[in-house]
Design goal:
By secondary structure, this protein is of the alpha+beta class. It is about 40% helix and about 15% strand. The protein has 20 helices and 13 strands. Strands 1, 4, 5, 8, 9, 10, 11, 12 and 13 form a nine-stranded mixed sheet that branches. Strand 6 and strand 7 form a beta hairpin. Helix 13 runs antiparallel to helix 14. About 30% of the residues are buried.
Length: about 450
């Protein structure tokens, strides 16, 4: 298992460090990013001819250059950018125009004093502001972001055009800070993916406050062992909710002493210590830490689990991932707490969830799952724990198949060792596309 740390934002500064390598070699170790690449043509080109790897960006048009800057030559635009003449969204388009002339984030930083990170913020925020302007948003709301508001607008760059308008209105009315803007954007993007989750229909997707309230409601359900934390989180959700329906439902939740409905609909019996999570589309790309695990199919049996690599390392200046042995299948997961510290982790792919010793629900028969096990913890120690084991197959072939069993059941049969303790069960992303962005949404 390997944990990798990635930059917290998709920043243009990735180019900054590769460009300087040829001119300031002695600075390489202090500036290199964990994930970065430069594509260098076979011949020796001029700096402006280099092709750089760009992190994925949705297709969005650049914000137009204001009329009073359009007649400026290169030197004039550099001077305007260096002195930050005008409002931020007026000089921000100059970054893109200078990039098209061959400047890199590194050279722009040298001549203007604006760091690559801030260049990225300015460009992204200017595109968002331009899309809001084209959406005919209330001018008073738009003017709220005129002074230093690019940090807020940058955080909602991945939302659709309609979602941006609602988010911008909420940010302006509630005077939200950049951290809150980031949380809001994630809540809005995540809401449609949670269709079918308990309480989802209490909230209205068209109200950003309801999206945030639903996120906190979901968090409250994770605090089943702490009434104080559960109550505090529900109170936060109630504070953020905008619609009467959401407020009424949350008030009723707060008034309940016990989560009876949750007991009735629980997918996992009391005492289960294994989290079950659903992967979200794009979640790995947004994660600041990721974990790389070898994958084997459940039908491949014990030999595959035991034969999977136990260790991966980052080697060399580029942090090249190197495993102790060759392996065909790998999975990258976000750096969730249960998997970050594994020393000999393995992910086992099951065709459905009937291999789990839990109450069978409809989704168990419809979805494939990944069971992440820690091969460094094979002893059956906890009665309430879950362990990956091999049992005799029911298909008459006489072979063995992999399953997950409770520690108490294994102890009753006298089983002392397993293939590994189960630390996480992962469900796949949903295939619903109603929350996916179209080309028009980005414009």
């Amino acid at each position: 298992m390997l944990s990798l740390n990635a930059p917290t934002s998709l920043s243009l500064t990735h180019h900054h460090h590769r460009h300087r390598r040829s001119h300031h070699h002695h600075r390489l170790k202090t500036h290199v990013k964990p994930i970065s690449a430069t594509i260098i043509p076979s011949s020796t080109p001029h700096p402006q001819q280099q092709l750089f790897y760009q992190p994925f960006r949705p297709p969005a048009p650049d914000a137009p250059i204001p009329p009073h800057f359009r007649s400026l030559d290169t030197g004039g635009r550099i001077e305007a950018l260096s002195n930050r003449l005008g409002l931020w969204f007026e000089y921000a388009p100059l970054v893109s125009s200078l990039m098209r002339e061959g400047f890199t984030p590194a050279t722009l930083e040298e001549v203007t004093g604006i760091s690559g990170v801030e260049q990225n913020l300015l460009v992204g925020a200017a595109q968002v502001r331009h899309s809001l302007f084209q959406s005919n948003i209330d001018p008073e709301i738009l003017s709220f972001f005129d002074k230093g508001g690019y940090g807020l607008l940058y955080e909602i760059r991945l939302l659709s055009a309609k979602e941006r308008v609602a988010a911008a209105r909420y940010l302006a009315e509630k005077r939200v800070d950049p951290r809150g803007a980031q949380e809001l954007a994630r809540a809005i993007k995540d809401f449609p993916r949670r269709r079918g989750d308990r309480g989802w229909d209490w909230f209205d997707y068209n109200f950003p406050g309801d999206c945030l309230a639903f996120m906190y409601y979901r968090q409250s359900r994770e605090h089943r062992d702490s009434l104080d934390k559960r109550t505090a989180t529900l109170e936060k959700a109630l504070e953020l909710a905008e619609t009467k329906k959401a407020k009424k439902a949350l008030t009723e939740e707060l008034e309940r002493k016990y989560d009876d409905a949750d007991d009735e609909k629980s997918e996992i019996k009391d005492g289960v210590k294994v989290p079950v999570v659903r992967m979200q589309t794009g979640e790995v790309a947004e994660a600041t830490t990721v974990v790389l695990l070898p994958v084997c199919e459940a039908r491949e049996g014990v030999d595959a689990v035991l034969g999977a690599p136990s260790e991966c390392r980052n080697l060399g200046e580029f942090g090249i991932v190197t495993a102790e042995k060759g392996w065909k299948r790998w999975v990258v997961l976000p750096g969730w707490e249960p998997v970050v510290g594994l020393t000999a982790g393995v992910a086992v792919a099951f065709v459905d969830a009937r291999a789990l010793p839990w109450r069978v629900n409809r989704w168990y028969k419809e979805e494939a799952i990944l069971v992440v096990a820690d091969r460094g913890a094979k002893e059956v120690a906890a009665d309430a724990g879950f362990y990956l084991v091999a049992v005799s197959g029911d298909n008459g072939s006489g072979g063995e198949e992999l399953k997950v069993e409770r520690g108490s059941a294994l102890k009753e049969r006298g089983v002392e060792d397993s293939l590994g303790r189960v630390v996480l069960v992962v469900r796949p992303p949903t295939e619903e596309t109603e929350d996916q962005l179209t080309d028009e949404d980005w414009e």
